[in-house]
Design a protein that fits this description.
Shape: globular
CATH class of the largest domain: Alpha Beta
Strand order of the largest sheet: 6-5-7-8-9
Order of helices and strands: HEEHEEEHEHEHHEHEH
Amino acid sequence: MFINLLVNATEAIPEGQADRHEIRLTTRTDAAGWARIEIRDTGKGIPSDVANRIFDPFFTTKPVGGGIGLGLSICHNIIRSVGGEITFETEPGKGSVFRVALPPAAKAPAVRPVSQPIARVATRRGRLLIVDDEVVFANSLRRMLSREHDVTVANSGRAALELLRAGERFDVILCDLMMPEITGMDVHAQLLQLAPEQTERMIFMTGGAFSPSARQFLDRITNRCFDKPCDLGALREAIRERLD
């Protein structure tokens, strides 16, 4: 349900203007113990003539193939089924905010330990480049992989390209797909001209490839792409395959 609301927020933001927009998610617990979640975006907003129909099943303003109009209807039903509520405010051209209220659970659910699959160890130590504008995520990934590999971090597509133009070469390039200014798609396109063999070494990571150009790009290439947060075991396996 929350993923659907976040996807809707990203799709409301015009492509290519990431630096002018934001999606803000806030959570709190009120005095009665209700969880209150707010998802606010600065996108195009919802036209007034369709705003009162957005929770109707099979209602959509997307073009054919873009969706069947069940996302918000399902969200609405999930929230109502647990005694919660969902409301929204919108202003065309300025954005929308969806507010979810969920009642306190009567009893905390039991937490079951989850067993993690063990990835095979890489056959050799490789040179890895992590390209990601999320500094905390990139540094965390570097720490987890640095015991097995020599890891370099670039916190922008521009910084990564500067390294490669200077002659640096890597066994594996872990690259964020959606970054401001120079995206992972742009890095791939420029590497096709600069060092085409390095494009085959790229593994993409994304918090959600929602723009039409990103979807088309992923459909066109054969490189692996992992959703964030990445399954570390599967990511290590993909790295090992590149090193073999």
